[in-house]
């Protein structure tokens, strides 16, 4: 049995999703276009942006590279 996540974790997940969305929009990309750049389905991009799931470190690195933003900008 897993311990429940601390209350701040879902909040941070939402913030990271918003940062991904903002960076994607600033880059002028749709979810589909970003998904194609990082070899992920656009539905996965949507789930990350809406904090339904969380990208792993590899995905965050790919997103940062595809959007030409520092990784730190996505996780602040």
TrEMBL record:
Gene3D superfamilies: lambda repressor-like DNA-binding domains. InterPro entries: Cro/C1-type_HTH, Lambda_DNA-bd_dom_sf. Residues 20-74 form the HTH cro/C1-type domain. PROSITE patterns: HTH_CROC1. This is Helix-turn-helix domain-containing protein.
């Amino acid at each position: 049995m897993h311990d429940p996540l601390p209350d701040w974790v879902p909040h941070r997940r939402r913030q990271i999703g918003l940062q991904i969305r903002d960076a994607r929009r600033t880059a002028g990309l749709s979810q589909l276009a970003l998904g194609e750049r990082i070899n992920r389905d656009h539905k996965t991009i949507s789930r990350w942006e809406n904090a339904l799931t969380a990208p792993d470190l590899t995905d965050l690195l790919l997103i940062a590279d595809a959007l030409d933003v520092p990784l730190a900008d996505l996780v602040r």
